[in-house]
């Protein structure tokens, strides 16, 4: 498998085996498997839609990971519509549009997340239209995701929306109670932890919005149990679960967990003293988001990052802020992390 440079990496945990199936996602899962097994021939394009946190990105990347595992010399590109737009703007500015087109049109599988963000971006829509035609005409597979069906994507060219519907449109609905319990059981098993069914059912009954929120609640319950050295019981986790329909307030701990998960690190890596490049960069990102998305001061943030002093925290914040102005691609990554957090938590004013 060949992956062009400067593309978003596939998360190796996003595989078909790790995807919990239920009535809510049966069609999307079956279609994704069919596409992975016969790219360019089964359903082209495949358009998957559903609310945030239901598994669209998991399925897109599972298709890519399936092709990677096949060992065939195929070129896979996973991106978001926002990143696609930013790359195009950068290419136009730097007079590198031919290289941009080569990257996206000489591939075997194109996976684009969140195409709803193409609304109003005329130049990007035009470029995607021609990219779509080139790939489709060459029988290369295209998979797209959105938070709504094609016909409800306002601000998109009719001809582009029409092409989104050429193949198969499959939706993912919020999981029912049985599926939510199965998801929690699978997540706990993946962590090598046994959680009693009554605990899983309590969490599943209290959180019905999306898979990310479910996983976040489970992680919090497990962490509480480990830190307190106490067995998980309905009584000792009751206060940790939000009331149905309400979201927990975003904290620095949530941000550290989200950033650590994205960059395949542990929370203590961000809090520690390691100066390894990948850890240092992730730490800067988490500090920037903590300041940007919560009302905590620099000294307060420093206490939650290994008791660092406020000048160090301020330096990290300014470093990322400057990079965002100089590196458009980084902005797309920041926005993706923010979206994941906002889907599960209530942002502080």
Count, helices: 16
**CATH top level of the largest domain?**
Alpha Beta
Q: How much of the residues is beta strand, in percent?
A: 5-15%
* Overall number of structural domains: 3
Write down how many β-strands occur, each being a DSSP E stretch of 2 or more residues: 7
| CATH second-level architecture of the largest domain | 3-Layer(aba) Sandwich
What is the CATH homologous superfamily assignment of the largest domain?
A: P-loop containing nucleotide triphosphate hydrolases
Ranges with pLDDT <50 over ≥5 residues? none
The helix/strand order is HEHEHHEHEHEHHHHEHHHHHHE
Q: What best-fitting shape do the alpha-carbon axes yield? A: globular
Q: Could you describe the largest sheet, including whether it forms a barrel?
A: 5 strands, parallel
Q: State the distance separating the first and last CA atoms.
A: 45 Å
Question: Structural class of the helix and strand makeup?
Answer: alpha/beta
Helix content: 40-55%
Mean pLDDT, rounded to whole units? 86
Order of the strands making up the biggest sheet:
2-3-4-1-5
Specify Rg, calculated over alpha carbons. Answer: 21 Å
The fold-level CATH name of the largest domain is: Rossmann fold
